[in-house]
Amino acid sequence: MKKYLDFLIKGFYAxxxxxxxxxxxxxxxxxxxxxxxxxxxxxxxxMYSFNLYTGKVGYILVxxxxxxxxxxxxxxxxxxxTFTIGTLMRFTRFQNYIDTANNxxxxxxxxxxxxxxxxxxxxxxxxxxxxxxxxxxxxVIGKYMTIFMGVMAFxxxxxxxxxxxxxxxxxxxxxxxxxxxxxLVMILGNSVGSVIIAWYYNRYxxxx
Length: 208
Description:
81% of the residues lie in helices and 0% in strands. The chain is built from nine helices and no strands. The protein is globular.
């Protein structure tokens, strides 16, 4: 039982850290600088070994069936963490952050499902590469640069990251059946993208 609670707690903390990265992004007008600072979220998640769904789902190919429960609890924790921080921010003086988040949310909700799915796949690919490189790369520069470059790439390209979007929806106070449907599509797209790259990586390394 304690093990499963740990999955949830580590997911919750990952959600908090991604939210902090999201707040920084909302606070900075320059998107390049903002995306760079956003990287704080993924970097600290990796450094503290917290459970971020998009960083873990690709490893479903090399784990046993009970890994699915760890993924689910991590995802729930991510949702709770982003919802907590996003909601708390609505009680602060940072109304301009909320306004910016509303603009971001409106763009996403005015997009079509297929577009959201494709953009989520692209983000999932980047997330697996960034996290896996952090774990496997021995060169310190390469280890950390992939995190920063990966996060900057998915943000500047406009790809869809389900956990970051959980935070944006939460701080914007936007909740509806459409929001949850879009989040499910984003989760599925991130999962597919991550697994696609993970499959190739595992297949390639098996031949070495």
